[in-house]
Sequence to fold (176 residues):
Amino acid sequence: MKIDLTDDGEAFEGEALEVVVGRLLLDLGMRLAVAESCTGGRIAARLTRVPGSSRYFESACVTYSNRSKERLLSVPNALLNEKGAVSPEVALAMAEGIRLKEEVALGLAVTGIAGPDGGSLQKPVGLVYIALSDSDRSNASRFHFEGAREAIQSQAAQMALETVRRYLIAEKTRRK
Fold:
């Protein structure tokens, strides 16, 4: 298996990762909705460039500001103030929020600091949290990507799709 963290989409046996994710979603009869912050719509763009993606992709929200995270995803203001927008807790709230609002099986969320500004010692440029939520559980993972802004955004989008792919493969195995 080849996992390429660039934006060219090469992912699995010569197929784009978004194609593999789409096929797995179809096989499992699941629909996905996405909440993006630092990736600015890259995940949705990749998913929707696949013909027929409307069969498994519901919607995406680019919630760049805290206000939009509150309004569109029901992320509590207190959580944003206490933990900050770039935190595992907010990533989880975003994933759960989009899943519940869109009434889909899976909610995916990405929040991070793409740079070149905005980083700190505690939260450096390249820090990204990716969360996935289903009706039984939610999980957030921490990543630190290197490079310029677009490289960080591309790597985060790729890893978000890879997170979904891994989940779907485990789900397919679990259902057998």
Q: What stands out?
A: The beta strands are 10-12, 15-16, 32-36, 57-62, 106-112, 127-133, 138-144. The chain is about 45% helix and 20% strand. Residues 149-175 form the longest helix (27 residues).
